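Final report, Chapter 2: Outcomes

The project's central promise was a pipeline that accepts a single protein chain and returns its three-dimensional structure in a standardized token representation, suitable for archiving and comparison. That pipeline is now operational. To close this chapter, we reproduce one record exactly as it appears in the project archive, with the input sequence first and the structure output second.
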Amino acid sequence: ITNNIVLRSFGSSINWRSALNFFRDAVRDGLRPKADTYAAILSVCEAASSWITASELLEASRHVTPDRFMLSAAMGCYEKAKKWQHVIQLLHQGRQGKVVPDSVMYTLGIRACETGRQWQVALALYLKTAADAISCAAMLSVCEICQKWEWALHLLKQVQTSLQLDVTAHSAAISACAASGRWRWALHLFGEMCRAGLQPDTYAFNAVATSCDTSAEWPLTLSLVGTMRKQQLKLNLKSYTLALRACAKGALWRSAL
């Protein structure tokens, strides 16, 4: 237990090599690491985004029966490194080893599927977990990346009375509609978000403005960008690009200047 506390005290990307050296010294001095010790050192590797070291540690831990904390830490390393196949493999390994995956493990799996654009795998994982706001937001991000706007709408409708989703989750659903040219649905979701008392951020405004841009609804794009300025939101490069494109479509060259 003492070794685990010391390892977790190194839990920053700056000290991860010190933690690794401490772990290796302890092993040389006769420590036989168990799952909780590996979970501690793997958490340090996750903070440092060192998936190669995590792989080496997993190879060295073959004699240990992993628990969900150890597997979650390893999955976190791979998810941050965008190694989605490794994340799914560890999830399956845990289930085969009679580790009951929790919401953290399923959410890590869903997030990994976003990188690999594996929306069907992500959906299968999502349906196996008791959905919470975090896992639902992760699934909506997969729908955004994979342009599955129908599923985004379905998920929002399914949880609208049971979960409180944040602006980022709603924006992901809006972006999924925008990518598929469903600008009316994007506007509808944007309105619902506002009516729910959520304050749209720059990302949310850009998402719905993009849907209008792709559908030649340039007046709406200009209106949205104007609203952003009135609300004193910080416009980014995408915001200005959308506004300029709208001015070009409307032949509003003075407004563009």
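Archive annotation: The chain has a mean pLDDT of 86.
This record, like all others produced under the grant, will remain available to the consortium after the project formally closes.
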